[in-house]
Specification:
Chain lengths: 113, 118
């Protein structure tokens, strides 16, 4: 079983600035993977970035990068050069085994023009 | 990425009736499908996991006789909410994963279905 904690219910960032969303997790699995999903007002879940736990190198996808600290069980998301379209709910998730995902409670990100 | 289509996107039904929600993988074979429920401003909670041709595995606290899940083919899973009540009103989301190592395969999400029971 996994638990995922997002301690920031809401965050805001100025357009073009950088913001970091926090996530901590706990799992008894040795092989697992971590995700950040974006859920805009349309409610469609969009995969932002994923990280395999066995990989030490932090994943990056264009303006999105993670800081994966395995020992600390921390998995934060950094969004650089924030854009208005980045405004959404962001969910951190942990998965193992058959790919059941456990989600955090989410962080609502607002982007200020 | 692969496409998962969920239908309907929204539905309103009368209390006591049943509602069926479909989840289709359009361009891949989904060996495993997941059904989630999301209350307003809350996270996604896994309801059940279904593998093609097998009975669904329900999470603790989810009534299997109320939320009937069928995964009869590799491209279609259905969730039927039986004898719906207002407290069943929620946003239901499916996701689908193809075969292979779970560590290397992504799960794709449908658009979700907003169910309102009146």
């Amino acid at each position: 079983a996994q638990t995922v904690t997002q301690s920031q219910p809401e965050m805001s960032v100025q357009e073009a600035e950088t913001v970091t969303l926090s996530c901590t997790y706990d799992t008894s699995e040795s092989d697992y993977y971590l995700f950040w999903y974006k859920q805009p007002p349309s409610r469609q879940m969009i995969l932002v970035i994923r990280q395999e736990a066995y990989k030490q190198q932090n994943a990056t996808e264009n303006r999105f990068s993670v800081n994966f600290q395995k020992a600390a069980k921390s998995f934060s998301l950094k969004i650089s050069d924030s854009q208005l379209g980045d405004a959404a709910m962001y969910f951190c998730a942990c998965g193992a085994g058959s790919y059941q995902l456990t989600f955090g409670k989410g962080t609502k990100l607002s982007v200020i023009p | 990425g692969a496409v998962v289509s969920q239908h309907p996107s929204w539905v309103i039904c009368k209390s006591g009736t049943s509602v069926k929600i479909e989840c289709r993988s359009l361009d891949f074979q989904a060996t495993t499908m997941f059904w989630y429920r999301q209350f307003p401003k809350q996270s996604l909670m896994l309801m059940a996991t279904s593998n093609e041709g097998s009975k669904a595995t329900y999470e603790q606290g989810v009534e299997k006789d109320k939320f009937l899940i069928n995964h009869a083919s590799l491209t279609l899973s259905t969730l039927t909410v039986t004898s719906a009540h207002p407290e069943d009103s929620s946003f239901y989301i499916c996701s689908a994963r193809g075969g292979g190592n779970p560590m290397n395969t992504e799960a794709f999400f449908g658009q979700g279905t907003r169910l309102t029971v009146v």
